[in-house]
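note to self — DONT lose this again. spent like an hour looking for the file last time. sequence + predicted structure for the chain T wanted, 158 res
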Amino acid sequence: MTPIYPTTAGLTQARLRPLIEDALARAQLDDTLPEDVRRRLGLCDFREAVDSLHHPRPGADPAALGTRTLPAWKRMKFDELLAQQLSMRKHYLERKARRAPVLEPPAEKRAASPLRLSAVAVPADSCAAADLGEIERDLAQPTRCIACCRAMSAAARR
């Protein structure tokens, strides 16, 4: 059996195969998961997974290869999901580390600010479930909820 790779105009199977073989020969395919984790999750070794997908052994089940139900596919799916989760976590931590400017007017203008609300300034139907103290505390935090800002602004205009 010979693997079939996705192609595009000008890049045929005949051209792709040697490129992929060369890349696989140079790639570091050492496993990054500890053996006990692989055993617990029922995952094969990474190098074994790559080899069995790119060089199917004689007698390999073509249907299992095509439906991606071989243990090698399970390992590839796991690694792709793990990489996605790690990437999302990294970017989440980077976003969380950024600080937004505080939306509070200077002290001299604070008393006249339309965003300083009291319970009397907000009609009962406009923020039925909103707690103004909570909204003001949220606005004092480095990150803001745009919905809170809009609610406060709308309430101040009424």
